[in-house]
Amino acid sequence: MGIQKYCIMVLCAVSFSVVQISSKFDFTNIKCNSFDKEFSDFEHCYIKPINRSYKYVAVKVKLFKTPITKVNIGIFKRFNGYNGYRPFMYNITVDACRFLNDTKRNPTASYLYSFMKPFSNMNHSCPFDHDLIVDKLPIQFVNDQVTKVLPVPEGDYVYETNWFAYGIKRAAVKVYGTIS
């Protein structure tokens, strides 16, 4: 009976001990392309490393014409044995103005929009008659989104947005990252 109590106490101690397994997200690259320079152009698009543990993304696009009507948002993952990236979890297209009028209507788009909302001036309803800015989106914020809010498996990923006006793709932004 004494050995059984000892084993139960050890088992309880092991099962109640806190083992923290944590993932870490890191930006690896960003690419911004304007397909119609008369419609829009990127003033800047970069990842800025401040030190070993802090870096951020900054994007500013100048809109020469409006409106942006649709946005396609997708997350892609690099899988072993394949060239390039494959769709992972989400790849949706939303009517930008309708979505911004009621962001709770589409939970998936709302989650993907939450990656940049606090660091962007794209947080009001249409029309957008000004430059679009994502300013100093920190790696720590994205890390929380992909490891705590909705845990994502380790790997290499691309968060891609394609911006449409009048049915024509006008611009694309791809943010590359790794979860380890």
TrEMBL record:
Residues 1-23 form the signal peptide. InterPro entries: DUF1091. It comes from the Eukaryota. Keywords: Signal. PANTHER family: DAEDALUS ON 3-RELATED (PTHR20898:SF0), DAEDALUS ON 3-RELATED-RELATED (PTHR20898). This is GG11895. It comes from Drosophila erecta (Fruit fly). The gene is Dere\GG11895.
